[in-house]
Amino acid sequence: MGILQLFKDLLKNDIKNRYTGSILGLAWSIIHPLSSLLIYYFVFSVILKMKIGNEYADVSFTFWLMAGILPWFLFSEALSRSTNIVLDNSSIIKKMVFPAQILPFVMFSSALINHLITVILFIIGLYTFNPSAVNMNLLLFPVYLVPLFLLTTGLSMITASLNVFLRDIGQFIGILINVWFYMTPIIYPISAVPEEFREVLVWNPMYSIIEGYRMLFFKAELVDINSLLYTSLISVILFALGYALFSKLKKSFADVL
């Protein structure tokens, strides 16, 4: 069996297994981010009266919030599910000789399908309320998707390989994702952060991706090129480290599983 065919089969099985027996099926890929959006909107907009700031003064808080949640959900879903991917596929790994590195790629691709569906619905909603916001600049979408892919799969290969030997990694990653979420200007604008802490948040590689999504949707512009280059560099480094670590440790997977 070729690698591409194996990848397709694993992806098909993952999608099928996730929604088997579910009445709503693929609709859950929309319900999850939408429910989170409603909760954050109610807490931060209705109760706390959070303001976006002058930079996005003409943008609805709901759309601004959703634009930030979209890439984060792709990142967090793929990373959290990939952490246990080797353990979940232990029977295949012990029986077959194949490049197990494709497993985190399968998880990212599965999450990406949900992401693209949600993005399309978001664009439709955005066009309904503000037709001028939808333009050809949206074709630059891959500029942010590529570093997001490298960052996510790189970290996924690191956590998935280490989790085989240190099962606490699977528990720790949930805490890490929660902390990372609140350390990223997703539900609050960076203008709300004291100036002495802003520089720290800017070094967060997810910041330029999330800000990039917002600028693409609401300003038809690219994020600061230096910020994008920094995130791309970090993403490439983590991807290379993750691939190297996974390739080295996978030789011992069958002995531990």
UniProtKB/TrEMBL annotation:
Q: Which residues form the ABC transmembrane type-2 domain?
A: 24-249
Q: Which top-rank group of organisms is this from?
A: Bacteria
- PROSITE patterns listed in its UniProt record: ABC_TM2 (PS51012)
Q: Name one GO biological process term.
A: lipopolysaccharide transport
Q: How does it sit in the membrane?
A: Multi-pass membrane protein
Question: Which InterPro entries does the UniProt record give?
Answer: ABC2_TM, ABC2_TM_bact-type
The places in or outside the cell where this protein is found are: Cell membrane
Q: Which Gene Ontology CC terms are recorded?
A: plasma membrane
Report the transmembrane regions from the record: 21-44, 56-75, 96-129, 141-165, 172-191, 227-246
Q: Where is the signal peptide?
A: none
Which keywords fit this entry according to its UniProt record?
A: Cell membrane, Membrane, Transmembrane, Transmembrane helix, Transport
Q: Name one GO molecular function term.
A: ABC-type transporter activity
Cited PANTHER family? CAPSULE POLYSACCHARIDE EXPORT INNER-MEMBRANE PROTEIN CTRC, INNER MEMBRANE TRANSPORT PERMEASE
Protein family according to the UniProt entry: Belongs to the ABC-2 integral membrane protein family.
Q: What is this protein called?
A: Transport permease protein
Q: From what organism does this protein derive?
A: Paenibacillus oryzae
